[in-house]
Amino acid sequence: MVIYDKDGKRNKWVQSWTDHSQHIKFGVRFQRQRAFRMYLMSESISSDTPPHIDPASGIYPPKHQDIIPAAWERDLESILIPETSIQRRVDELGALIERDYADKNLTLVALLNGTALFLADLIRRLSLPVRLDFMGISSYRDQTVGGEIIMTKQLQLDLSGSDVLIVDDILDSGATLKKAVTLVESKSPASLKTCVLLEKPARRSVNISADYTGFTIPDEFVVGYGLDYADLYRNLPFIGALHPRVYNHTSN
Ligand code: IMP
Ligand code: MG
Fold it and tell me: Cα Rg for the chain, rounded, in angstroms?
């Protein structure tokens, strides 16, 4: 960087000081990036079993506690899963799926709309040939409780002979995932597995579990990272517990 005095001459002192400070800034940034890379490297792929969110501390892992941005402060009770934890778990899920589908003919079938963010992150972690299709399955929700299931978009790809992995945002009662599995099974895939970002075991009424699970969470209505309430909150980069005052107007 070249610095000039008021009279137009090059100011060598300021210039060398500025270069020096840039150098320090770069050095600090470099150190931080190096520390972060080493931190990532030290985290090995944990296991196939999803980490349980501890309702007491509310987070996984307890290293990161993000602050709720002002725009959502009133609507959210807490950040259940911070962005960094989501990204780390998606890394792990990607590695597991990549390992399991190394010699397969993988087609991801993502359920709309809740998987948009999860899918975008997950699919970029897969260094494999992957086909992608979407299925629109929506359950009419009375406040936070699921109801009748409707189809909003049909499959487009021929799934026969394909190794299909259904991707959904959250496994709650299980009715949505069961419906998706039944529909895909009727298309004669070579194999069929399921992957969900979250599962809430407390409300399971259909006998189904996912083959890959991001996080097991307590019985709270959650939003963010694709999940909505009344079509809002999908854009939060973290998963937050919605404050009951948002869906229950009688409470505060
Ligand atoms: P299920 O059919 O009861 O398993 O519900 C699955 C669908 O309900 C998910 O794909 C979500 O769209 C929605 N859902 C269930 N629980 C939550 C939640 O806590 N937050 C947001 N959406 C949810
Ligand atoms: Mg959904």
Answer: 23
- Residue 1: both structure tokens together: 């960087």
Q: How far is the CA of 238 from the centre of ligand 1 (A)?
A: 16
Active site residues: 172
Task: Pick the atom of ligand 1 nearest to 176's CA.
Answer: 2
Q: What is the pLDDT of residues 93-118, one digit of tens each?
A: 999 999 999 999 999 999 999 999 99
Residue of 149, 120, 124 whose CA lies nearest to 136: 149
Q: Which residues of 44-157 form beta strands (DSSP E)?
A: 76-81, 106-112, 131-142, 145-153
**3-state secondary structure at position 120:** helix
For range 29-48, the mean pLDDT: 47
d(CA 61, CA 42): 15
Instruction: Kindly state if the Cβ of 133 falls inside 6 Å of ligand 1.
Output: no
The verdict on the CB of residue 194 being under 6 Å from ligand 1 is no
Give the C-alpha separation, 71 to 130, whole Å: 37
Atom from ligand 1 closest to the CA of residue 168: 10
The CB density around residue 37, as the number of other CB atoms within 10 Å, is 10
Measured in Å, residue 138 CA sits from the centre of ligand 2 at: 6
CATH topology of domain 83-216: Rossmann fold (3.40.50)
Mutation test residue for ligand 1: of 80, 139, 205, the one with most atoms within 8 Å of CB: 139
pTM for this entry: 0.77
Could you identify the residue written with the tokens 């039944």? 182
Q: Does ligand 1 have an atom closer than 6 angstroms to the CB of 196? A: no
> Is 222 close to ligand 1, i.e. is its CB under 6 Å away?
yes
